Amino acid sequence: MATARVERLRRNSGGALVRGGSSAEKHRALPIFPRMTSSLLAEVQRTADTAGLNLFGLVDAARFDACQPRERRARALRPRCGTLLVLGTGGRVFWQRYAQRGGVAAEAGESAASRLVSSGMRGVVDVLALRRVPAHPILAGDPRIAFARLAEAAGFGTISPVSGLLVHPEYGPWIAVRGAILVDGMPFGSVADASITDRFQPCCTCNRPCVSACPAHVHDGAGNQDVARCASHRHAGNCEPACGSRAACPVGAGHRDGPGEFAHRHVHPLGELRRNFGLGVWRFVPAFLRQFRPRP
Ligand code: SF4
Ligand code: SF4
């Protein structure tokens, strides 16, 4: 049923929605961008999929930047950026790829997930470099880009006006935006608006269990999250192994992480929260130094 809903959205969006799943599904989706059949885009998408990055979308940098404050624009980071290649994971494909590489999902942690994501992003940059297309990877969580908004622009779903969670038509909240590649120019041609927010609004007909399920009252029910409160709650050892708010959402419930899987346990990894809010050892590090991120 969820798949039918995605297909309906794809048709209504003029084919601009790309969503992951099996490789076969994604390859069927390739012709939906004007120049999607180009070998470069197909190769880039295949490379990302190999690392489990099964959500893939293109965003016009000028269009995205027009809606962003000056300090959070893609072209403030890279002035020649014309295209944003957005990468994410939905459902269990991520750990299936991990297992194909010999890993055991139940024994893996956030660092294993980060390594797999980083290798996928480096692979994409390498593919582009071979075609002489300069590009710069940036990991999700970097505060210089509003990744949730970028994911919406890439057609990954709709940010809930109730919980603030990003909800995908098929995977529900069991997705993660992993990063973006800032690509110079427009090597894939012009990029259509892929957003589905005008057609996909699941919260309008929901009784909002995501709000009541949070023991720390992080959600105000109007889309705002007190992330600092969530960070303190989790830093104290709560909400492991999963976010009760996310688990309560009925959309995409069949795509929840399996036992031991870390892929989509939380919107924000605990390590990132500690860093951002100066918890644990990070309390000794000045805020301006905590902002520096390793290059993927
Ligand atoms: S992790 Fe826990 S405290 Fe944070 S939003 Fe989810 S349920 Fe609430
Ligand atoms: S539980 Fe309902 S209100 Fe909350 S994010 Fe999911 S669909 Fe929206």
Could you spell the SSE succession in H and E letters?
HHHEHHEHHEHEEEHHHHH
Distance between the termini: 37 Å
Which architecture of the largest domain per CATH? 3-Layer(aba) Sandwich
| Approximate shape | globular
Q: On the 0-100 scale, what is the average pLDDT?
A: 83
Give the strand content.
5-15%
Quickly name the level 1 CATH class of the largest domain: Alpha Beta
Could you characterize what this model shows?
With 296 residues, this protein is of the alpha+beta class. It folds into two domains: 33-184, NADH Oxidase (3-Layer(aba) Sandwich), CATH 3.40.109; 203-280, no CATH class. Helices cover 35% and strands 12% of the residues. It has helices at 2-12, 23-29, 39-50, 61-65, 74-77, 93-100, 110-130, 147-153, 209-212, 227-235, 244-248, 270-277, 287-290; strands at residues 55-60, 81-90, 135-139, 158-159, 166-167, 175-184. Strands 1-2-6-3 form a four-stranded antiparallel sheet, with helices on both faces. A two-stranded antiparallel sheet has the order 4-5. Strand 4 (158-159) and strand 5 (166-167) form a beta hairpin. Helix 3 (39-50) runs antiparallel to helix 7 (110-130) and helix 10 (227-235) crosses helix 12. Mean pLDDT is 83; it is low at 5-37. The structure holds iron/sulfur cluster (2 copies). One iron/sulfur cluster binds next to helix 9.
Helix/strand layout:
Elements: H1 2-12, H2 23-29, H3 39-50, E1 55-60, H4 61-65, H5 74-77, E2 81-90, H6 93-100, H7 110-130, E3 135-139, H8 147-153, E4 158-159, E5 166-167, E6 175-184, H9 209-212, H10 227-235, H11 244-248, H12 270-277, H13 287-290
Helix pairs in contact: 3-7, 10-12
